[in-house]
Amino acid sequence: MSQLSFSSFDSSLLVRDAQGRYLPASVDQILDAARQAIDQKMQRGTAFTSPALVKEYLVTKLSGFEHEVFAILFLDTQHRLIEYSEMFRGTIDSASVYPREVVKEALLLNAAAVIISHNHPSGHPEPSSADKALTRRLKETLALVDVRTLDHIIVGGADTTSFAERGLL
């Protein structure tokens, strides 16, 4: 694994190659480093105390992918993180999501609540009619086993759309 470091002389991220030389980091390397940093910062038991914190976490985890990734934050009764799981991977404009698998994982983790999320590689976080229908279906299915759906956040680059904030949940 490459080691990233910050170069103070030109304000760019550098990565050390196998020969020990420093080279400019690629966008993918920078995004991977950001994902690792957020994983270290937001570990199991971290409380999501504000919508802004949730959005910051999800932007770091989901922006930059060139394909759709459908992820779920499984939470306990105090909205503390049990696990972040990228459950489904799709294409550039869609991902197949299976409610049965989401319920199985929620029960396995003994989750009391979830925040569902996915990215829009286009960078535009506006929910589609399919996004709205899927959210309703997941919320209803999870409610059958007493798991609350707190939000569905769509990440488009650095922008987000929250179903809860828009009254769509």
UniProtKB/TrEMBL annotation:
<feature type="domain" description="MPN">
    <location>
        <begin position="47"/>
        <end position="169"/>
    </location>
</feature>
<keyword id="KW-0378">Hydrolase</keyword>
<dbReference type="GO" id="GO:0006508">
    <property type="term" value="P:proteolysis"/>
</dbReference>
<dbReference type="InterPro" id="IPR020891">
    <property type="entry name" value="UPF0758_CS"/>
</dbReference>
<dbReference type="Pfam" id="PF04002">
    <property type="entry name" value="RadC"/>
</dbReference>
<dbReference type="InterPro" id="IPR001405">
    <property type="entry name" value="UPF0758"/>
</dbReference>
<keyword id="KW-0645">Protease</keyword>
<dbReference type="InterPro" id="IPR037518">
    <property type="entry name" value="MPN"/>
</dbReference>
<keyword id="KW-0482">Metalloprotease</keyword>
<dbReference type="GO" id="GO:0046872">
    <property type="term" value="F:metal ion binding"/>
</dbReference>
<dbReference type="GO" id="GO:0008237">
    <property type="term" value="F:metallopeptidase activity"/>
</dbReference>
<protein>
    <recommendedName>
        <fullName>MPN domain-containing protein</fullName>
    </recommendedName>
</protein>
<keyword id="KW-0479">Metal-binding</keyword>
<dbReference type="InterPro" id="IPR025657">
    <property type="entry name" value="RadC_JAB"/>
</dbReference>
<keyword id="KW-0862">Zinc</keyword>
